[in-house]
Design goal:
- With 204 residues, the chain is an alpha+beta fold.
- It has one domain: tt1808, chain A (Alpha-Beta Complex).
- The chain contains 3 helices and 12 strands, in the order αββαβββββαβββββ.
- A hairpin with a 4-residue loop joins strand 8 and strand 9.
Length: 204
């Protein structure tokens, strides 16, 4: 989601994780999309309906995978992830796949410091490339093994890994989980369509 300028009104000093938790839970901020990046509060724009549809499709595929293998769980709706304690960075992936809990009661009641195996971000049409690249870099250098960047305008998925390799996948190709999510696979096209819409591979 796109940062809004100017940033949401917040104290001038750098916030800690605990201070940010208190800040986002103030009544006046409960309906806002907020992240903390290097101690500074950033307000994000509300996502589009297409953004939400792609997010839901990816969460569904990952959820079915987790149930099939009996491991991990999926968090969506920009659930908070603490990437760095100081200067504090708390972000909300559109979708994330975690393996730090086996029961619902074991899931951290707030944000938690265990990073996901996989973080998914869906591009908004007004996203700035520099901001997107910075967020992906923050994920990868703080323990996230895979980042998937969805572009619903161009119907493609870019997959990033900590070794700096990346792959770009389009409609007819398969999105797989690699060593981190063994056995996961789905068609890229399935992530950009609705249940009533038949799959039509692009012409050769």
């Amino acid at each position: 989601m796109t940062p809004i300028d100017p940033a949401v009104t917040a104290p001038a000093n750098l916030m800690s994780v605990d201070e940010f938790w208190d800040f986002v839970n103030r009544p006046e901020n409960e309906s806002k999309f907020l992240e903390l990046r290097k101690g500074k509060v950033i307000e994000l724009s509300r996502p589009t309906r297409r953004h939400g549809a792609v997010t839901s499709n990816m969460a569904l595929e990952l959820g079915l995978y987790a149930r099939r293998i009996g491991q991990g769980y999926v968090a969506s709706n920009d659930s908070g992830v603490i990437l760095v304690d100081e200067p504090a960075t708390v972000v909300g992936p559109d979708v994330a796949y975690f393996t730090d809990a086996n029961t619902f009661d074991e899931i951290h009641p707030k944000w938690g410091e265990e990073v996901p195996v996989l973080a998914v971000e869906v591009l908004s049409p007004t996203d700035k490339p520099s901001a997107v690249n910075e967020k992906i870099e923050d994920y990868l250098k703080n323990g996230v093994n895979i980042v998937r960047l969805f572009d619903y305008e161009q119907r493609k998925v870019t997959v990033y890994r900590p070794d700096r390799t990346l792959s770009v996948l389009k409609d007819a190709e398969d999105l797989t989980g690699g060593d981190e999510l063994p056995g996961f696979t789905c068609k890229v096209a399935d992530l950009f369509r609705l249940p009533a819409q038949p799959f039509q591979p692009p012409p050769a």
